[in-house]
Amino acid sequence: MKGCHPTVEEERALRAAGYRAIAGVDEAGRGCWAGPVVAAAVVLPDAVIDAPEVLDGVADSKTLTPAQRATLFERITSVAAAWAVGATPAHIIDSHGILPATRLAMQVALLRLPHPADALLIDAVHLDGWSLPQRVLIKGDARCLSIAAASIIAKVTRDRFMETLGRYWPEYGFATHKGYGTAAHQQALCRYGPTQQHRRTFRPLCDMAFAEALSAALEGEGA
After folding, report:
1. Which of 50, 80, 148, 182 is most buried when burial is the number of CB atoms within 10 A of its CB?
2. Which domains does the chain show, CATH number per domain?
3. Considering the entire predicted model, what is its pTM?
4. Residues 208 and 103: beta-carbon distance below 8 Å
């Protein structure tokens, strides 16, 4: 598998400081035009922190193929001490903004863990107001094994959700592009308009809505 090889240096440092339930946290879908933003929290057991080769191949989900991610999803969930996911839907993303929505999804994932975490390793996002120790790592999914594992859980979970949406709205191609901005997705939007799963504050959707409103206003003036 191509890509960087994340390490367990951060996990070992936190464990040496006395922490025992260290959750890696990451998200998938922040830049999409449609669908939720999904976050995952993964707590690796001491056995994996001591022998990370158990999860050999785990890396930033963006560097892996769908088949690789699916295989690693099963391996991660079978060895993790705990894992959970959280999701924030499109209408909350539109009303609150993508960063608050991402934080909300991460918080939901952490609250759903069967046993609470006592320290966090998070990719790029700080959870304001949480009392737990947090290490925010830029490109953490390429550097830290727990975060990389969370990135795979989040990505696979979200992709499967988008494939389900594709059965309800097959004309949009959700099963193929997973809600990301592609030429085919834009063509479908132009032809059919947005669904309730689309993020209307994201471009090009907000631009399309503005153009429609402007056209309607001009038609009204000319009536």
Report:
1. 148
2. 9-222 (3.30.420.10)
3. 0.92
4. no
